[in-house]
């Protein structure tokens, strides 16, 4: 190829590599300035109708654009000027999925994880799986021992974890203790939850037993498939920050228990 063609190739490749970054920045501006308001009530509805994806996907792209910006900023700070204008320039992400595992980290931590992932990928752009593995190894090295006990009552801390959406603040009764997570029972079933998403209520053993009994009762009623309004009530009971039901709450729960028996 001619020198001009080589230059065109590099220019076009850079456009492809930065596509997700530009999409994320554009979505952030559309959201922050509410430029969707002339046609849609919510950003979620707008994303679904205009781009065919969920608000969560848009949020992933927005977060990935921030990571890309952080990496390029730190790259410029750490690299000699000549490296930024040659083929030895910093390897940067080319898709949202590659950086999703590091969106919650601080900028310097993002840089360190990305650099290690590039090394493991043999100097090429790493996959999201490689990046996630690097993050997991760091967590395992710095993780405090799992001190939770079976039967202990904890609170779920969602922390923007999409897998725990709607579960923030719920009672979580530990049913199995793993190295870096616990299996817990909550008002609508059983889940595996990382230690960073749990906080102990420090209840006495008798209080833990009392909550376990209440939680089992809630779960039996919930599993019967009653109306949505009833399920919302049960969800509210499953998020109480006390180890007992009030007299009225107890009466309502008993009525629902009688309903499913009949």
List keywords for this structure.
Site-specific DNA-cytosine methylase, 2 domains, alpha+beta
Structural overview:
By secondary structure, the chain is α+β, with helices and mostly antiparallel strands. The chain has helices at 3-17, 19-32, 43-51, 55-78, 96-99, 107-120, 128-142, 205-223, 228-237, 247-261, and strands at residues 153-156, 171-177, 181-186, 189-194, 198-200. Helix 2 crosses helix 4 and helix 4 packs across helix 6 (107-120). The radius of gyration is 24 Å and the shape is elongated. Residues 81-89 have low confidence and may be disordered. This is Site-specific DNA-cytosine methylase.
Secondary structure: number of strands: 5
Please give the alpha-carbon distance between the first and last residues: 80 Å
- Main sheet overview: 5 strands, antiparallel
Using the alpha-carbon principal axes, give the shape.
elongated
Poorly predicted tracts of residues: 81-89
User: Secondary-structure element sequence?
Assistant: HHHHHHHEEEEEHHH
Order of strands in the sheet with the most strands? 4-3-2-1-5
Helicity level: 40-55%
């Amino acid at each position: 190829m001619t020198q001009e063609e080589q230059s065109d190739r590099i220019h076009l490749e850079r456009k492809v590599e930065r596509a997700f970054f530009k999409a994320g920045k554009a979505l952030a501006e559309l959201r922050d300035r509410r430029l969707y308001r002339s046609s849609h009530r919510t950003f979620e509805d707008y994303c679904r109708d205009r781009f065919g994806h969920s608000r969560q996907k848009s949020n992933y792209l927005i977060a990935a654009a921030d990571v890309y910006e952080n990496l390029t900023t730190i790259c410029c700070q750490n690299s000699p000027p000549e490296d930024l204008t040659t083929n030895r320039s910093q390897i940067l992400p080319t898709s949202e999925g590659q950086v999703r595992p590091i969106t919650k980290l601080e900028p310097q931590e993002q840089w360190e994880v990305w650099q290690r992932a590039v090394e493991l990928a043999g100097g090429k752009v790493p996959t999201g799986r490689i990046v996630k593995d690097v993050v997991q190894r760091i967590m395992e090295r710095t993780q405090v021992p799992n001190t939770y006990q079976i039967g202990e009552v904890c609170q779920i801390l969602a922390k923007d974890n999409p897998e725990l959406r709607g579960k923030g603040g719920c009672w979580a009764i530990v049913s199995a203790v793993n190295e870096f997570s616990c299996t817990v029972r909550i008002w609508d079933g059983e889940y595996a939850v990382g230690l960073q998403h749990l906080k102990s209520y420090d209840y006495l053993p008798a209080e833990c037993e009392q909550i376990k009994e209440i939680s089992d009762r809630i779960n039996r009623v919930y599993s019967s498939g009653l109306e949505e309004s009833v399920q919302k009530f049960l969800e509210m009971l499953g998020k109480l920050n006390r180890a007992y039901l009030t007299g009225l709450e107890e009466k309502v729960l008993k009525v629902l228990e009688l309903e499913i028996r009949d």
